[in-house]
Design goal:
This protein is an all-alpha fold. It contains five helices and no strands. 74% of the residues lie in helices and 0% in strands. Helix 1 runs parallel beside helix 3 and helix 1 packs antiparallel against helix 4.
Length: 100
């Protein structure tokens, strides 16, 4: 359950960082709604699957028995790499300006 909670904090914090004017809305929304509303592409797909596996770990009867905690950790690693990549791209686009 700790990994699932970490995903929620990460997802919501990143969304708030990118849309600070929507902080209250993001904080009050369900995780799935934040993922659908603030993420897209492969990252959205990976976030959804990480959420499913994280939720699954908290239940007695699991839906995804073929995937263990190590798969959830790998998904979290993928999420972190993608968010880091997005952050670095935005940082360098913003800080290195044309001299023309």
């Amino acid at each position: 359950m700790g990994y699932r909670k970490a995903i929620e904090y990460l997802v919501k914090d990143w969304a708030i960082q990118n849309k600070p004017e929507e902080k209250e809305k993001i904080e009050k929304s369900w995780l799935g709604a934040v993922i659908k509303g603030y993420y897209d592409g492969d990252l959205k797909e990976i976030l959804e699957r990480a959420t499913w596996l994280g939720n699954d770990q908290a239940h007695y009867n699991r839906l995804f028995e073929e995937f263990d905690i190590d798969v959830l950790k790998e998904l979290i690693d993928l999420i972190m790499v993608e968010l880091d990549r997005q952050y670095k791209k935005a940082h360098y686009i913003e800080t290195i300006k044309s001299k023309k």
